[in-house]
Amino acid sequence: MHYLDFEKPIAEIEGKIEELRHLSGRNGVNILEDVARLQGKVEKQIRQTYAKLTPWQKAQVARHPDRPHALDYIGALIEEFTPLAGDRAFAEDRAIVGGLGWFRGRAVMAIGHEKGSTTEDRIKHNFGMARPEGYRKARRLMELADRFGLPVVTLVDTPGAYPGVDAEARGQSEAIARSIDTCLALRVPLVSVVIGEGGSGGAIALAAGNAVMMMEHAIYSVISPEGCASILWRDGDQAKVVAAEALRLTAQDLLGFGVIDRVIAEPLGGAHREPKTAIAAAGDAIEAALGALDGLDGEALRARRHEKFLEIGRKGVA
């Protein structure tokens, strides 16, 4: 397992457990009591550590390489998933995946940012940073779902839209704006879950939904802590901790501001420790959100979505 900087005490205890198990297997020594004692100690350490995470530490957890990604959620929650590719204008963008399938007996369109799990996958999916064709594909799939009356479920996990010259030349900002506009115009339910990073316009392009939820240790912000620190303090390293605090990017902060509707609890130690449990919890939350929207007609769904986002601006933030 990959350990974060603040998880060193946990790593040390779990290292001792592995050593004891190795010795037991080789020498026939019974160390069950010692292992049980250390297991209790490591659980206590994880609980104490994760009960007081700083915003910067939350950002690290949200980016954990072992954290489940969109395709993991889709694979576990969507049956008979049929991927759909291409924007019908330029190319296929693998940073955004999407397609049709069955979610707990309900036909849905599932769309998400995919970061990739291995080095090869990360390169193929461009680390979850979509180009214009990715957002145009997302728009095409949402419009397809709207045409056939299918709910849309989006899984947000991106550091932001790809900032390359080629992406800007092909109309990155226009593609994001039109994707947001499509989200707001849908006459079917749209449920969004920020499963890792929710970075800037690249995230909200898929997250302007009737219900917006975040995993407990996910982050959602207009800019990354590093980017904010670089712009405001000309220091992308030391000031990132201060920036993370100032941005109020945690799920708990955003729930208080009314930016999101629900925080989905993660297993002790984060989604990367028990991916199946985290994915199941997200599935339950999505099912509840879709159920709450049943019976509403297209105009009501669209009106509620508009009002939801207008209300955020009216409330303001402290």
Report the span from N to C terminus: 39 Å
**Strand tally, please?**
8
The chain-level structural class is alpha/beta
What's the tally of helices? 14
Descriptive terms for the model:
318 residues; 2-enoyl-CoA Hydratase, Chain A, domain 1; 52% helix; alpha/beta; 14 helices; 16% strand; 8 strands; eight-stranded mixed β-sheet
What features would you describe in this structure?
The protein has 318 residues and is α/β, with parallel strands linked by helices. The chain folds into 2 domains: 5-52; 59-315, 2-enoyl-CoA Hydratase, Chain A, domain 1. Helices cover 52% and strands 16% of the residues. Strands 1, 2, 3, 4, 5, 6, 7 and 8 form an 8-stranded mixed beta sheet that branches. α1 packs antiparallel against α2 (32-50), α4 crosses α13 (275-293) and α8 runs parallel beside α9. The longest helix has 20 residues, at 8-27.
